[in-house]
Amino acid sequence: MKKFTQFLAISSLMVVMVACGEDNGNNDDTVEAEETDEQVETEVNNDETEEAENDFLAVEDIVKAAMEAEANLQSAFRHNVMTMGIDADVDENITEEEEGVAQEEEILEYTYVHEDGSVSTRTERIVEGQPTEYTADDSEYSLQYTEGEDIAYRVEMFDVEGDPADIHPMNNQFEQYLENYDVVLEGEEEVNGYTTYHVSFTGEEEVLHYWFDQETYEVIRMENEDEQNPFRITLDVIEYEHNIDYDEAFFLLEDVMPEDIDIEERDTEEHLDEEMNDIIDELEEENEE
């Protein structure tokens, strides 16, 4: 009887030990599984963080490459189409007739950078049913002429401090975007026959979209979104060309202005006032119609 009792005691102890061993094994497996899950989660988070950092570095490189290309540009031609319209989703008071494309215009833009860093530009604004408007700018004056008129206007440019070679308005914008906006590479898209990088810059209220040609980093399209302003502008570059030789007379509008045309000198502020009055008159005429 004593031996049987001892046998039961030993058997019970073995059962307890086995049970404890199984519990310890299960606990070890649980701890190991938890550690594995934590490691996987950590690795995933690290991969996502690294991927996000790589994406930002990639998109930042794209924008900086566009800035460098613009800074090194000696001459260029761009055929642009600008579309302006109203977004009814932003303002419920906009009627169905007012929504959509309000105006479309072609803009032919010519740029030449001189050896001293000064820049000459010529712009031709073409709107269907209206005379072509020509503007030629250099570092000192802006010459403005409308097709068919017998007078042109020469306006003194605003004084700009610093070396003209260091002045790149587009690059200044991109620097502000990189510093103050969330920058995202949206993807690669075919736009106007060019393979482009689609980059978005998101601010507090607005989102700006740019499409850069992958070969030259030329801006092929620009679009704006704004939570408060329903006015939308899209600028498409239909075609462009770099490194062109221009004759100096081309930037004096000698090929389009009559030889006997009168050129009126205008003060900058006076000219701006006249331009604003013309815009107001046009809006009033449109409202009357």
What does the model show?
It is built from 3 helices and 12 strands. It is of the alpha+beta class. Helix 1 runs antiparallel to helix 2. It starts with a helix and ends with a helix. This is MucB/RseB N-terminal domain-containing protein. It comes from Alkalihalobacillus trypoxylicola. Keywords: Signal.
Question: What does this entry show, briefly?
Answer:
The chain has 3 helices and 12 strands, in the order αββββββαββββββα.
Characteristics:
single chain; alpha+beta; outer membrane lipoprotein receptor (LolB), chain A; 2 domains; 3 helices; globular; MucB/RseB N-terminal domain-containing protein; signal
Strand content: 35-45%
Oligomer: single chain
Question: Under CATH, the topology of the largest domain is which?
Answer: outer membrane lipoprotein receptor (LolB), chain A
- What would you give as the CATH superfamily of the largest domain? Lipoprotein localisation LolA/LolB/LppX
Broad CATH class of the largest domain: Mainly Beta
Number of strands: 12
Across the major sheet, the strand order is: 7-8-9-10-11-1-2-3-4-5-6-12
Shape: globular
What is the typical, i.e. mean, pLDDT?
78
Structural class: alpha+beta
Q: Helix proportion of residues, in percent? A: 25-40%
What can be said about the biggest beta sheet? 12 strands, mixed
Total count of helical runs of at least 4 residues: 3
What's the number of domains? 2
Uncertain segments of ≥5 residues (pLDDT<50)? 1-26
Separation of termini?
120 Å
Reported CATH architecture of the largest domain: Clam
Order of helices and strands: HEEEEEEHEEEEEEH
Keywords: Signal
Protein name: MucB/RseB N-terminal domain-containing protein
Organism: Alkalihalobacillus trypoxylicola
